[in-house]
## 1
Amino acid sequence: MNRSATEHFGGTGNPAKLWDYVDLALLRAAKRNRARLSGPEGTQKFYGSFFTREDIALLHSRKDRRREARAETLRSAVRELLAGGGRLLDVGCGVGDNLAELGGLGIVLRGLEYAEQSARVARTALGDSAEVMVGSATAIPLSDTTTDVVVCLEVLEHIHDHEGALREIGRVLKPHGHLVISVPYRHWFPVYEPLMGHLRHYTRDDLEGLLARHGYRIVRYLPNYPGWSRWADYVYVLCRALERVAARFGWVRSAAEITLPGLSRPLAEILLDRLDWLKRREADLPYPMLGTSTFVVAERSG
């Protein structure tokens, strides 16, 4: 992608590549007839309808391998950080799927969600295993230095004042507490804002600089499987399209369960089995040196 074309389309993040345009086309198709972000007055409505019933079912089904890959990484990191117990806050917890994966670790779980509708779904799914609060990441309803670990996955890109959000996270974290954070590293086009609510994407340098300005030191780069995750996205896009066709004939299946004639197993399972080699290879990539490394554990200064 040449410099002039990148400037013409605007946006932020790593320079645009061919696959970014494929992703953009698929996003436009997926968001057809869905609510769009249309200014501050429409923010609650947009995020209130952000997760469809199909999205929620897939997130909590534990059959989405993209979700499971991230959950395994998150659970391993949190288990290590809170081996002796402690308090964890998931900022932007959505419908509670991350918190559900962290149950059973012997820690106190809290979630903060901006959209009331998503918070209600999370409370129903989590029951008494976690407390879910409604509020903004720039005004967290907790006292100072009350939290050992904050999780913030794919959230900062939705927040106008992401600097303010990091200040608030630092306020509620204990000295030398930890932030587990991920942000999208792919190129962002301006149309992402109304479609996805993304205000920016980040390069690795962007994230490192942002964290450093707020007193965080990156202590670990976590695997985010850059090539595998992109191909896995395409698998689920295909299966979601087949899911919609099947629904017209009254055949209700989630994207993870769609089968085709002659297949003994779900299509997503078969295709992702064939991508396992790529995921295994990318587990051992030198993430501390990769430009795609925007999934990290950072320590707050004392």
## 2
Amino acid sequence: MRDLLTHSEIIDLPEGELITEPGFYRISLDRHHNQPCDGPSVTSGVLRKMELETPADVWAFHNLNPNRWEREETVALRMGRAMACYVEGGPELLETEFRVLPKDKPKRPTAAQQTAYDEGRGTEAGIRSVEFWKAVEEDLRDIVTEDEWDLICTMGKVLAADTAASAVMDGIPEVSMAWKDEATGIWCLARPDTVSFSGLVTDYKKMATRGTPFSDRLVDSRITQHGYDMQGAFACEGFEQLRDEWPGFGIIAQWDKAPHHVILREIPDEDLRIGQFRNRRALTRFRECLDSGHWPGPGEVTGAYQRPAWQRELLIEEMQQGNTAP
């Protein structure tokens, strides 16, 4: 085991500069996802979408695509970022990154209220509305509601009180690991929620159950559904590239409903190696699509309708009884 990595070994990348050497970097999440290297880069999200969806789904929103669609931010993505922020630095860091909209906030000003304000004849309510929303728009922080803030803080306290979760998350948060893949020449960027340089990386997942029990089985199904085996393997590979050792990887899942139970799931090494295989396949295909300019979608291959086998058998049997089978 090599000596533990210290904060001094993490590189602070100045604004305007690009990553040119492999290493551990301290950069913003937004910068991590927006091509911070001196060549094309991929994140785990890109590779998982290549594998679980189609290349066309990747390219449609990719920031290397000059004709990309604008991605609509979902509540889940925004809340995920906020929770990651809380995990990293508690309510203090959360407040530096997010602005809380109070429940008694004024409605957005109407055109008439804005005109009246500009002409110096606004009403008290109109002035309050214009100035409140002007301050919000000028604030560079993301927004959460009071209810969302309370939920994040409540879940964070439960998480912090879980001794097992606290132990495995006792690493350096939000570090970007960067390395260049030799086979494709593409930069790889992994950013697990915590990196413990004793040999463990973790990712935190807030989970909604939509009426089903919060259980090991549900967590495992979400790992499969969202390719978290790939995400874990990507982080492990980055650690191995930079530290010459393959770490362990675990998911910390937390229920978004009270009492906000926490479940820890270690992904076994064999499954991580399967995830690594899937990452390699996705990375190779990304390089091929980038070189060719062709990003196949779900309609790339035409085919015939496939009736479910159970229905076909049932209907054929009924047709045979009536002497109408094909």
